[in-house]
Amino acid sequence: MTPRALLSRLRLAPLLHDGHHLRRLVSAAAASPPDEAPPGAPPPPPSNSRLFVAGLSWSVDERSLTDAFSTFGTVTEVRIIYDKNSGRPRGFGFVHFSNDHEAKCAKDAMDGKVMLGRPLRISFALEKVRGAPVIVPRLSTVK
DNA sequence: GTTGAGCGTT
């Protein structure tokens, strides 16, 4: 009995014929670069076109926020965060701009400005948003 | 009818 016939009897032949599976896995692993930043690298910058706006008065709504920020660029989305259970505003929100330049201008201009009696605290948003493009900071991206 | 640092309700 040939070795091949023996493999057939053991039902191992399909596995050997399916070598492309293994090849796909190997090439995929080789194609994806390591996402581990080298030690000593600067921390990845937060997202640039979305602003985290804190220090909001309880009575500020999306309309007034949009009005306040749209003078610096195109506001694509404004979101004020409310408590899931109580429904009360949590006093912060997010302002999305169409590009990062507008966001930076708005941040520089509005950070620290008082709105309805309370000073705004603005910084760039951290977490990505559902549906937004996933931006993985790489060394070539950092200037 | 209140409160005050923070990173997002589907």
UniProtKB/TrEMBL annotation:
Stretches for region Disordered: 29-48
Record keywords, A-Z: RNA-binding
Molecular functions per Gene Ontology: RNA binding
Protein name as it appears in the record: RRM domain-containing protein
RRM domain span: 49-127
Domain of life: Eukaryota
Lineage: Eukaryota, Viridiplantae, Streptophyta, Embryophyta, Tracheophyta
Bias type Pro residues, positions: 35-47
